[in-house]
Design goal:
The complex is a heterodimer of chains A (180) and B (669). Chain A is α+β, with helices and mostly antiparallel strands and 180 residues long. Helices cover 28% and strands 23% of the residues of chain A. Chain A has two domains: 137 residues, no CATH class; 38 residues. In chain A, a hairpin with a 2-residue loop joins strand 5 and strand 6. Chain A starts with a strand and ends with a helix. Helices cover 41% and strands 13% of the residues of chain B. Chain B has 26 helices and 20 strands. In chain B, a hairpin with a 4-residue loop joins strand 1 and strand 2. Chain B is globular and about 60 Å long. The chains are: A alpha+beta (180), B alpha+beta (669). At the A-B interface, helix 1 and strand 2 of A face strand 13, helix 7 and strand 14 of B.
């Protein structure tokens, strides 16, 4: 066992009671991720989506999580304080069963990157009603394991950059054959 | 590439069922900016004065403001323009909400409807796919209900829907268009939509809006955001609570209604109840609001929470904003419980929250004074609140007396006769006004009431405090951070304005100062209405985040149109003059420009004449309120001159020499 070390966990706390439904989070997310930065706006490209039904008082801002290539075998509905939330309302996946979290033109999946390089995610910064707040916390992880993993990945990435991923995969396959 | 705007209009001929996507001329945007400005140009070009509001030749334009859909906070307004059935003049009502940005993302700056559909239809716009769809199953349904059903049947929960209720279908002259938490209510544009056979326009867009100078634009937006935060923490002292902050007056949040209930008029705008507000009322109304209000809500890209979802017990939820909270309550001499409940039904029917209660109170007063009789009101319940529900139901269906009342107090009084005209006492240009009656003439407000072409005081007032501060030190503190003024002299005007004595109403601010103050206030509203900015963050509140100094930068960085203060001022003046030209061509003249006779108790005919004479000259209009040839030429509106000459409104040799006269007058002061 190696020594323990700290890892930063980035969290956006969503207070649905404070959401006023304005969709500024969607707007600024799409602008920030435009290329060049802020050169266009299109909430349909946003990595945060507000699931919003004012007449049912439903306001759920959801950040795009990882892409998955299959839908769930079954789905859940939640009822909270008498309000029924739609299937997938709290799910962050970009998946075949929903329109959310895909580029409207290419269909490519979108993932929230917490606005890397900024002090805090811009959806948080632009939410003046504090429905979204940013929190960082440290978690302890085993250092050696992480270190080894990181080193190996950096090395592999460098090799992939130089020779292309396909050649690396082939080489690994050949190495495995030799070993057997 | 086009920036901020999409560069495309959607032209829909409802008679033929023809839909076209037409590229617009970028030069037009430079001249008229978009929104209201471009709408005025389209109305001028396409709707000659002979065209009646309910003619297929009338057009109904839904225009997104120039900067809608960009990161500019609070820029979300749709400007709906047409010819009003009530005033027969140009109507341009606005709505916030979510519709305008969605239209932009679908790839259009505006939708222009002409002709009439033989059957009730709704329009479905999804990016490049645009359909005219059958709406026969939606006939008679409420505006909010309709929007929900359309989203369901299209399976498009994110579609934004602008719709009319029964009032619009039945061409009630004060029918609104409802959308999200907003509505375009004034001047009967919902009736024109109903006349065209259009129940709703649903839109969903997933395209980009481009920004010309992204980094600069974001920096401007950040400045606005920081100022909003600062302004929310620093209310303006010395004015009544609802004027202290920014946004629309925070009627959904404020419980203390002493000021409104004791200063605004009750019933048919006649009765002032000076000692109405007490602890018991406050407790009861607070309880009502707290029990029915579910959540504060906002329009697209705006942190202000000017609206709320309201759920009266046993009734569907609806969305409310601003002063419709009290208009029904006060028209009926009732309480907030009644007001919030009847407003639910009124919102579904789609009626204007100012005109509708006033028309009903007018009918009740006519009945109480024997001008409307039991025969006219056959079936009306005897209890006060029941009467209002009954009247509302008759009006939106145009049943019996409702058919007469559905034309608003001006036209209804004419038709009823027997002295009824005396009771239609709160109109300007045939349009119902806020329920306000005051004592001493305020020269600034006199000009705004007379000449405002939105014909609604909240749509022209704003930047200059409504009343002087009692103490000089307070005034000095007020002007200290008043950087929104277009010129330093406005600070001096305010500093010298006293509640009593020589420098007080009605002779101070002087005639000339009043002209300048009105001109500034009006200009800010006109700029907002072209850009699609909510008046609540700009032209309406004191010390707003948007003003004449940062707007040109927003236009330059956002739309890529080189702009400065002088150019923007001129552009606003151009389309403001064009709005007037549309109305002048339809017969509006000086004689129409007057406040309700009883708006102020103390009137000053000579001063009022001087005010209007001077203001007309200041604006470059002749003594009848018609823009002069020189003015039109200066604003590159020579095509208006040509038309005016053809119609005999101006003559070929109308050398007006106004500038001389003005300078003579100035010297004499």
């Amino acid at each position: 066992m190696g020594e323990n070390t700290k890892k930063t966990i980035k969290t956006i706390k969503v207070d649905m009671d404070k959401c006023n439904g304005c969709r500024t989070c969607e707007m600024i997310c799409s602008a920030f991720h435009a290329v060049p930065k802020y050169s266009s706006v299109n909430p349909a490209r946003s990595r945060i989506r507000l699931i919003r039904h004012p007449l049912r008082d439903i306001y759920v801002p959801v950040h795009a999580g990882e892409y998955v290539n299959a839908e769930c075998a079954g789905r859940d509905k939640y009822v909270i304080n008498g309000k029924e939330y739609e299937e997938c309302a709290f799910c962050r996946a970009s998946c075949p069963s929903r329109e959310e979290f895909k580029e409207p033109d290419s269909g490519l999946p979108l993932t929230c990157d917490m606005c890397e390089g900024e002090d805090e995610p811009l959806c948080v910064k632009w939410c003046l009603n504090d429905a979204l707040t940013y929190e960082e916390r440290e978690e302890e992880v085993e250092e050696d394991e992480i270190k080894a993993q990181t080193e190996m990945e950096i090395g592999l990435e460098a090799l992939a950059d130089r020779f292309g991923l396909e050649k690396i995969t082939d080489a690994v396959a050949r190495m495995r054959e030799k070993e057997q | 590439m086009r920036y901020a705007e999409t560069g495309f209009n959607l032209e829909i001929d409802l008679s033929r069922g023809n839909i076209e996507r037409v590229e617009s001329d970028p030069e037009l945007t430079k001249h008229y900016l978009g929104g209201l400005g471009t709408n005025a140009k389209i109305l001028w070009d396409r709707v000659p004065p002979e065209v009646e509001p309910f003619s297929p030749e009338n057009v109904l334009i839904f225009s997104a403001g120039l900067l809608c859909g960009t990161p500019a906070i609070g820029c979300n307004r749709t400007i709906v323009s047409t010819i009003s059935p009530q005033t027969k003049l140009m109507a341009f009502s606005m709505m916030g909400g979510f519709w305008a940005p969605e239209l932009k993302y679908a790839g259009y700056d505006r939708v222009i409807l002409r002709g009439k559909s033989p059957d009730l239809v709704y329009l479905w716009i999804k990016n490049d796919q645009v359909e005219i769809r059958d709406a026969s199953h939606l006939k008679g349904l409420g505006a909010t209900e309709t929007a929900e059903l359309i989203r369901q049947e299209l399976n498009e929960p994110k579609a934004q829907v602008a719709s009319i209720g029964m009032a619009g279908e039945n061409r009630v002259y004060f029918a609104s268009i409802e959308q999200g938490r907003s509505s375009a209510s004034r001047l009967g544009i919902g009736a024109v939509m109903g006349d065209k056979g259009v129940k709703a326009i649903a839109v969903r867009g997933t395209k980009d809006i481009n920004i010309a100078q992204p980094a600069e634009y974001l920096e401007l937006c950040h400045e606005v955001m920081e100022y909003i935060k600062w302004r929310n923490d620093n209310p303006v002292p010395g004015v009544m609570t609802i004027m202290q902050g920014i946004g629309s007056p925070q009627e959904m949040k404020v419980h203390d209604e002493k000021w409104h209930t004791e200063n605004f008029m009750w019933g048919n705008t006649r009765v002032r109840r000076k000692d109405f507000w007490n602890e018991e009322v406050e407790q009861q109304w607070t309880k009502t609001m707290d029990s029915m209000r579910t959540r504060f809500i906002s329009c697209y890209n705006c942190p202000m929470e000017c609206g709320a979802t309201i759920t009266p017990p046993g009734q569907p939820t609806y969305m409310m904003k601003c002063f419709s909270k009290l208009t029904y309550t006060m028209a009926a001499f009732s309480d907030l419980d009644f007001g919030l409940k009847i407003a639910q039904r009124a919102t579904e029917y789609g009626v204007d929250g100012f005109s509708a209660p006033q028309v009903m109170a007018f009918a009740v007063e006519l009945y109480e004074n024997g001008i409307l009789t039991d025969k006219d009101m056959s079936g009306m319940p005897s209890d006060n609140e029941g009467r209002f529900y009954w009247l509302l139901d008759r009006i939106v269906r145009r049943e019996g007396i409702g058919d007469v009342l559905a034309n608003g107090t001006y036209w209804a009084a004419k038709e009823i006769g027997g002295g009824a005209e005396e009771y239609a006492h709160n109109n300007i240009k045939k349009h119902e006004q806020l329920p306000l009656k005051l004592s001493m003439l305020n020269p600034i407000y006199f000009l705004m009431y007379c000449t405002g072409e939105k014909i609604n005081i909240t749509q022209i007032e704003g930047q200059f405090p409504q009343a002087p501060y009692p103490k000089r030190e307070e005034r000095e503190a007020f002007v200290k951070d008043w950087f929104q003024v277009p010129d330093e002299k406005f600070k001096q005007y305010f500093l010298d304005w006293e509640p009593r004595g020589e420098n007080s109403n009605p002779y101070y601010p002087t005639v000339r100062m009043s002209c300048e103050i009105v001109d500034w206030q009006e200009m800010m509203h006109y700029i907002d209405d072209a850009l699609g900015m909510c008046a609540g963050l700009s032209s309406f509140p004191l010390k707003p985040p948007y003003h004449i100094h940062n707007y040109p930068k927003f236009i330059t960085a956002g739309a890529g149109i080189e702009m400065d203060e002088a150019k923007l001022t001129k552009a606003a003046r151009r389309y403001r003059t064009l709005v007037r030209a549309v109305n002048i061509r339809r017969g509006m003249r000086r004689a129409d420009e007057k406040p309700p006779e009883n708006h102020w108790k103390k009137r000053f005919p000579e001063l009022e004449k001087d005010l209007l004479d001077t203001y007309y000259r200041f604006k470059g209009w002749n003594n009848d309120g018609v823009p002069t040839k020189e003015t039109l030429h200066e604003l590159s509106l020579d095509y208006v001159t040509e038309d005016f000459i053809k119609r005999g409104i101006l003559t070929d040799n109308d050398g007006d020499g106004l500038s001389d006269e003005t300078s003579v007058k100035d010297k004499s002061k």
